[in-house]
Design goal:
Layout (H helix, E strand, L loop, with lengths): L1 H9 L13 H27 L3 H6 L1 E8 L10 H14 E15 L5 E15 L4 E13 L5 E7 L13
Parallel strand pairs: 1-5
Antiparallel strand pairs: 2-3, 3-4, 4-5
Length: 169
């Protein structure tokens, strides 16, 4: 009798399995492809900033764009506030360059690449008020939506590096 039961259950059709998720390796490969594409977008965005092309920068942003600036006491900025802030930099600084830039994949909560971009580098600039050269270290995370538009930026840098130094000190 146990043999009959074994044959009976062995001949039953297999239970339907839920659709398998993409293997982790495939998901990571897709995220790294997105990162490579998005890193180029970040570099273009930074080039547009250097060239003071606000319209080109805005064209790269999603409708629900936000920015989290490093300035103390400021929360996330909407597009209009972001534009005022960027315009201030464009109006008050010249000979802007971004050097030693390095791009790394953004990571989700599980430390898995997710297509976002982390960038490190050094800004160099001249303050127009006294023609003094300045520099600052920079770190930012750029977040992207499904359409490949930038929908958020979080920046970290020492804001004191932007303050013009007294030429006599």
């Amino acid at each position: 009798m146990p043999l009959m039961a074994l044959l009976f259950f062995a001949c039953q059709p297999a239970a339907e399995q839920p659709a398998a998720e993409a293997p982790a390796e495939e998901t990571t490969d897709l995220a790294m492809e997105a990162f490579e594409t998005n890193a180029k977008v970040v570099r273009q965005y930074l080039d547009h900033f250097i060239n003071k092309d606000m319209d080109a920068m805005k064209a790269m942003m999603s409708d629900d764009f936000f920015m989290s600036p490093p300035e103390w006491g400021q929360d996330s900025l909407d597009t209009e506030q972001w534009q005022e802030r960027e315009q201030f930099f464009m109006d008050n600084y010249s000979e802007i360059t971004f050097e030693d830039d390095q791009y790394f994949a953004g990571l989700d909560d599980d430390q898995t690449p997710n297509g976002d971009v982390r960038v490190y580098g050094n800004w160099h600039f001249t303050y127009n008020g006294n023609n003094q050269r300045g520099a600052m270290k920079f770190y930012a995370v750029f977040f992207f939506n499904e359409e490949g538009k930038i929908n958020g930026v979080m920046e970290w840098f020492n804001t004191a590096d932007l303050v013009p130094k007294d030429a006599d000190s």
